[in-house]
Design brief:
about 270 residues, TIM Barrel, binds NADP nicotinamide-adenine-dinucleotide phosphate
Length: about 270
């Protein structure tokens, strides 16, 4: 699903209203072709306005959204069906490229949400099914439940959280990983090994973090920014190829950081 045009996408958490529309539109004008939103972000309509205004073929864009976050009320099939319809309406689209289950709270959640998503894939309104914040056990359950493939797993991933176990588990499948918080919400800017590689290539730490993610098989990334300068900077990562020495240096970082960690999750 992801290729060189979509491997670096735009995350849009907290980018709402006109500011949200403007930055998504600026991203598309700059060449971004993968936009990531969610029901929970409260900005699907703002993203939809940017897509409608953009001077780009709809088929050239990969629009991803998510339903059913753990913070939402107890999920029923009717709730999830309504939520999916509302996403279509707010985005102003008749087809969604990638629809994720945002964050499961329980096994029952997974059993309720996935059949609705699978149904939308089967009837052609959704091109790809995604899951987010799933553990290996959740993925095993999802594989048992689904007759369609899991096209994408969106999880937090960056040099301080390389997600070895999940990537190893997925290595025998076509499920691609989408790295959220790929800059560890700026925490990677403060790591000596990353700064050294950034200096060597004459680029920012943000670019190095994204280029390191690009160096991993089947991994896309969705950095968020409210700044057009940062948008441009992050997009440079598409053409920065780290060498084996750089990658080994970053792989060897002995520091872990997880930005998103509700206390009840057992990763
Ligand atoms: N599935 C999930 O549960 C989940 C959870 C978290 C996030 N996400 C997705 O992942 C996206 C990204 O994650 P995130 O927002 O948590 O963190 P992130 O992308 O790792 O970091 C965002 C921060 O980095 C700054 N930044 C971005 N590019 C920069 C650059 N080139 N130079 C300097 N600073 C830069 C931004 O500030 P400026 O605005 O000043 O640039 C912002 O403070 C979200 O927007 C959302 O779409 C999904």
């Amino acid at each position: 699903m992801f290729d060189s045009r979509t491997q670096i996408g735009l995350g849009t958490y907290s980018l709402t209203g006109t500011d949200g529309t403007d930055i998504v539109q600026a991203a598309i004008e700059h060449g971004y072709r993968h936009i990531d939103t969610a029901r929970l972000y409260g900005n699907e309509a703002d993203v939809g306005t940017a897509i409608a205004n953009a001077d780009v073929d709809r088929d050239d864009l990969l629009v991803a959204t998510k339903v059913a976050h753990f913070e939402e009320p107890e999920k029923t099939t009717e709730y999830v069906e309504r939520a999916v319809e509302e996403s279509f309406e707010r985005l102003g689209l008749d087809r969604i490229d990638l629809l994720y289950h945002h964050w499961p709270r329980s096994q029952a959640d997974i059993e309720t949400v996935l059949p609705v998503l699978e149904d939308r894939v089967a009837n052609g309104r959704v091109d790809n099914l995604g899951v987010s914040n799933y553990t290996v056990a959740d993925l095993e359950l999802a594989r048992d439940l689904l007759d369609v493939p899991i096209d994408a797993l969106q999880v937090e991933m960056h040099p301080l959280l390389p997600q070895h176990e999940l990537r190893e588990f997925l290595s025998d499948s076509d499920t691609q990983v989408v790295a959220y918080s790929p800059l560890a919400q700026t925490e990677v800017f403060d790591v000596d090994a990353i700064s050294a590689v950034a200096e060597k290539h004459g680029v920012s730490e943000a670019v190095v973090s994204l280029a390191w993610l690009r160096s991993k098989d089947g991994v896309a990334a969705i950095p968020r920014t409210s700044s057009v300068d940062h948008l441009r900077d992050n997009f440079r990562a598409r053409s920065v190829d780290l060498d084996t020495e750089d990658i080994a240096r970053i792989d060897a970082i002995d520091r872990t950081h997880r930005c998103e960690d509700p206390g009840w999750m057992t990763w």
